[in-house]
Amino acid sequence: MDPRFRRNISPSLMRSLDEISQMFEQAFGERAATPTGHWLPSADVFETGDTYSISLDLPGVKQEDIRLGIEGNELTLSGERPYQEPAGGKAHKVERSYGSFQRTFQLPVNVNREGIKASLKEGVLTLRLPKKEEVKPKTINIEVDD
User: Could you tell me the superkingdom of the organism this chain comes from (predicted)?
Assistant: First the structure.
């Protein structure tokens, strides 16, 4: 928040605004308050005719630090991006999030679980969730009777 704005607000209102801000950060996965803690990678979810696609931003996370699993109708991604203090120095500002993360997505009933694929490229994890054959869109030709 702009410091000039803070000066014109009563202390009790400022505390309330800070509490609301913290609740949003916890609920929606904004930056962790400390360099190490819990965070949520940003995700985009798309649907095409035969596939769902989930892309997650995981810069600096190694493949071996990512776990992906399905339990019931939930797909869960978890892992960790470790924080490393610079050798021979100290950090003056840390804005990137570090520590453990976890995201859970509800799987649509029409997902072919055996066909799910995951790939990690340039810090983006892409999950491809194919739809079951029987639920893919189908076009029916209309015949004209003479």
Answer: Bacteria
